[in-house]
Design a protein that fits this description.
- The chain is mostly beta strands and about 130 residues long.
- Helices cover about 10% and strands about 45% of the residues.
- Strand 4 and strand 5 form a beta hairpin.
- It starts with a strand and ends with a strand.
Length: about 130
């Protein structure tokens, strides 16, 4: 599975072992149900146009390691509000933003903690996007 993230002309190859953990949790319909003062049921429904969450994460701590240099680029991209990017998963492209409202949009932990981290050190990373 190929996964890339593109901003302008720069493309980052993300580790292919990241998986889309909330892919099937999205409901394309928004619905609200209320009762009127007479007791009648009022149902309003419409199609969701955007906002689908896309969380990419490793299966466990032993998979989908990424180098610190890649993580640093992702962090710098995530530091810009409303930066729109193109996420491509298996040939399907999604216009995305980092999902900051759910806590950390980028969660990165070193595989081995070193006192003097190097750009080639490995990290496990969880990335939170939303489709726009």
């Amino acid at each position: 599975m190929a996964i890339t993230l593109t901003y302008n002309t720069t493309t980052i190859d993300l580790h292919p072992d990241l998986y889309w953990s909330d892919e099937l949790d999205w409901a394309p319909v928004e619905q609200s149900v209320q009762r009127s003062v007479s007791g009648a049921l009022i149902v309003m429904a419409s199609e969701r146009i955007a906002g689908r969450p896309i969380t990419l994460q490793p299966e466990d701590d032993a998979s989908a390691w990424m180098q610190r240099a890649t993580v640093a680029t992702l962090v710098s991209w995530g530091a810009v509000p409303e930066r729109q990017m193109t996420l491509t998963i298996n040939g399907t492209s999604y216009d995305v933003l980092f999902r900051h409202q759910d806590g950390a949009a980028i969660e990165a932990r070193p595989v081995v903690q070193y006192q003097d981290p190097q750009p080639t050190d490995f990290y496990t990373v969880t990335l939170r996007f939303m489709e726009v």
